[in-house]
């Protein structure tokens, strides 16, 4: 089959332009990824500022509860490098019930690994209960989730025993609420996802009260957290729709917490 001279010249021009078109496409894709990365960082910063602002609205006086701030130890702050922190001890007038409400947001998922109760409390000398931890069904903004309830004990040099109960769960910027550390590990595997951050909420009680009393106390303290703060932890405030959609495409958690982001690209 013979081609006309104009057809041959057109094919030649297309072949010459192809490398340039390919390069432009690659540059365009790189620019898009850069812009998305900058967008993620910008949204993460806006989310952290929103969380800090709303933590200031957590009341010191609510119902019969009276709170006072108790800052985190300097060592813990250095390890966590948090972007927002609330550490407040409450006492209920009339009953003497005491509980600590802790809210910590880290700008990088990897900074949170050392603050998981099964890791940080034993590292500070607390022994976990031999029978393991319990589960507690809770809800935030009407959405149910399951938190973990850890029981720890310690003894001083005189043999005096002390017990603690810790309710803990994580809030991810894609809206997921979980107490399973395995759901955080895939997020830490990719740097751009890890830098979207993670929040953790703890309620710490003296002794080993019944699960029913633990649930009652925890629900009362969680009600102190402003709705906008919860939404910011979930990535619903200060986050554009584009960033949320990109984040949802990057990570897909299966029934066992296995994600397609489990392979590191670093």
Overview of this protein structure:
This protein has helices spanning 5-55, 74-80, 117-123, 185-189, 191-194, 211-222, 227-233, 241-250, and strands at residues 61-62, 65-69, 82-92, 98-106, 127-128, 134-140, 143-155, 161-171, 177-178, 198-206. It has 266 residues and is an alpha+beta fold. The termini are far apart. It is built from eight helices and ten strands. It has one domain. A hairpin with a 2-residue loop joins strand 6 (134-140) and strand 7 (143-155). The longest helix has 51 residues, at 5-55. The radius of gyration is 25 Å and the shape is globular. Helix 1 (5-55) packs antiparallel against helix 7 (227-233). Strands 1, 2, 3, 4, 5, 6, 7, 8, 9 and 10 form a ten-stranded antiparallel beta sheet that branches.
List keywords for this structure.
266 residues; alpha+beta; globular; disordered C terminus
Radius of gyration: 25 Å
Roughly what percent helix?
25-40%
| Number of beta strands | 10
User: What's the main sheet like?
Assistant: 10 strands, antiparallel
Number of domains: 1
- Mean pLDDT over the full residue set: 74
Intertermini distance:
52 Å
Write the H/E string, N to C: HEEHEEHEEEEEHHEHHH
Summarize this structure briefly:
The chain is α+β, with helices and mostly antiparallel strands and 266 residues long. Helices cover 39% and strands 27% of the residues. Strands 1, 2, 3, 4, 5, 6, 7, 8, 9 and 10 form a ten-stranded antiparallel sheet that branches.
Topology:
Layout: H1 5-55, E1 61-62, E2 65-69, H2 74-80, E3 82-92, E4 98-106, H3 117-123, E5 127-128, E6 134-140, E7 143-155, E8 161-171, E9 177-178, H4 185-189, H5 191-194, E10 198-206, H6 211-222, H7 227-233, H8 241-250
Helix pairs in contact: 1-7
């Amino acid at each position: 089959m013979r081609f006309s001279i104009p057809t041959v010249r057109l094919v030649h021009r297309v072949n010459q332009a192809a490398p340039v078109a390919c390069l432009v496409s690659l540059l365009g894709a790189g620019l898009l990824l850069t812009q998305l990365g900058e967008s993620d960082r910008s949204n993460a910063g806006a989310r952290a500022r929103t969380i800090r602002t709303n933590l200031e609205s957590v009341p010191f006086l609510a119902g019969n509860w009276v709170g006072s701030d108790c800052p985190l130890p300097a060592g813990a702050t250095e390890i966590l490098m948090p972007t927002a922190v609330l550490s407040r001890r409450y006492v209920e007038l009339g009953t003497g019930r005491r509980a600590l409400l802790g809210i910590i947001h880290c700008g990088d998922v990897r900074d949170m690994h050392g603050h998981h109760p099964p890791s940080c409390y034993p590292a500070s000398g607390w022994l976990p209960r031999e029978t393991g931890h319990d589960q507690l069904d809770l809800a935030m903004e009407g959405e149910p989730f399951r938190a973990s309830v850890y029981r720890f004990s310690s003894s001083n040099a005189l043999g005096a025993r002390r017990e603690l109960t810790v309710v803990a769960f994580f809030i991810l910027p894609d809206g997921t609420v979980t107490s399973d550390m395995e759901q955080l590990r895939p997020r830490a595997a990719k740097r751009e996802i890890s830098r979207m951050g993670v929040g953790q909420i703890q309620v710490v009680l003296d002794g080993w009260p019944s699960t029913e009393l633990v649930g009652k106390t925890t629900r009362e303290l969680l009600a102190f957290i402003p709705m906008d703060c919860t939404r910011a932890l979930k990535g619903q405030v200060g986050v554009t729709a584009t960033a949320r959609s990109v984040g949802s495409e990057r990570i897909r958690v299966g029934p066992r917490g296995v994600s397609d982001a489990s392979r590191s690209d670093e």
